[in-house]
Amino acid sequence: xxxxxxxxxxxxxxxxxxxxxxxxxxxxxxxxxxxxxxxxxxxxxxxxxxxxxxxxxxxxxxxxxxxxxxxxxxxxxxxxxxxxxxxxxxxxxxxxxxxxxxxxxxxxxxxxxxxxxxxxxxxxxxxxxxxxxxxxxxxxxxxxxxxxxxxxxxxxxxxxxxxxxxxxxxxxxxxxxxxxxxxxxxxxxxxxxxxxxxxxxxxxxxxxxxxxxxxxxxxxxxx
Length: 223
Prior knowledge:
By secondary structure, this protein is mainly alpha-helical. It has a single domain (34-202), classed as Ferritin, core subunit, four-helix bundle (Ferritin, Up-down Bundle), CATH 1.20.1260.10. The chain has eight helices and no strands. The chain has helices at residues 13-19, 32-37, 41-65, 70-96, 108-115, 123-148, 154-181, 184-202.
């Protein structure tokens, strides 16, 4: 990625338009979260890089668990490659900013969502929908970061503007796959439940320089 702040960073309507084409969240992150998360850009990017790697591993895990589902295997194979490419983009930016990839940390957000997944015949549905919800929340966070980073961290603003459409596409992909294996009504009901659960989880997490951290205190400007 090149340095500088191109004119496109000032265009904030297109990301919002993209968000309208995916399912809504049950709770919206307050805009102040973006500035709070950017208090430690390298920590934020390191957490982001590990999220991309985790998404790669998750896609590979679905292939290993459901090898007989040809369509799922094909789409998850392509997704794993894309997520690994995103990891490379984030890592290059970390190095370009003079940092190194930090150690992997416990992700309480993802762990809480995975604990809600069922076993048996509904296991695949839940894994697909949890993945969709995570991608959807990540899209929202990327949009907030793209705006908050424009002035002081244009490199990050460019990164999050670039990656936003992929998150939207991934969220839609997981819903599409779910509805190819399960009835629409069952998918919609379970998605609504998981969205409410996700909202309760993320707004109770501590604020910090992580992609899926909780909101800042209303009486404070940072975490």
